[in-house]
Amino acid sequence: MHVRSVAAVVSALVGAAAALLLPTSAAHATSGGDRPIVVAHRGASAYAPENTLAAVDRAADMGFRWVENDVQRTKDGELVVVHDATLARTTNVEELYPGRSPWNVKDFTAREISRLDAGSWFGARYAGARVPTLEQYMERVSRNHQKLVLEIKNPALYPGIERQTLKVLANEGWLSPKHLRSRLVVQSFSADSIRTVHALRPGVKTGFLGTPDVADLPEYATFADQINAPHTRISPEYVAAIHGHDGPHGKPLEILTWTVNDAATARRVAGYGVNGIITNAPDVVREATDGS
Ligand code: G3P
Ligand code: CA
Asked: Which residues of the chain have pLDDT under 50?
């Protein structure tokens, strides 16, 4: 065989092997690919306590690159990864700090929060899991080679949280061109918060959580790259309307829909052409949408 033919065959085989080795969710960027990306919501939160390092590790172990998590701020100004405004549901805060009702995240110092057990409520095997700081969390997702949809949660409670979050992301290397291109989305239910992120760091890909009227999409497209709507509120027409506008980076707006935990719904929204599906059970969604 001619040398160049041999080289071509070897190159094709290497490429095919690499594609086989890639986890399904890693084979698609948020822009492109026939199947929607699968995003592990609060980590793989059907299988490990939400918003803990164990939950993102679980997602990684299952082969999922994309994770979603929530960031808020402690009384003394540390950013922490936790969903609710109060620590009561997902930690033993009531036991450790009785009399501090309603146990708001913003009323506890980082040191106090670091003592909490954020795993036992989910299952005994997770006893001792902690509420991670954003810094600890970013180090773990970096180590896992993961990609992140980071939600700024309850920004009205934490003035300046956008700038502070961007600073941590920058310190952790997450505002490098490579990360901005394919590994990071910052989202919020607050349009003001997303506008602020876009104004501070225009290179960051952003998502608005909600279902704006179709008539308002051109305005959202000036500061948001994604319109991330609940699956109960979308239709093929709404998805097409979103895709019909270019976002702030000159590419069609995208939609990641949430929170889809069953196969039938996953197939339905995949059929609408969504770019991604945010789910507590990424394995269920991956199996349902593979080849759909
Ligand atoms: O990413 C979508 C989803 O996280 C928004 O809702 O309440 O789970 O943060 P929530
Ligand atoms: Ca969230």
From this structure: 1-29, 31-32, 292
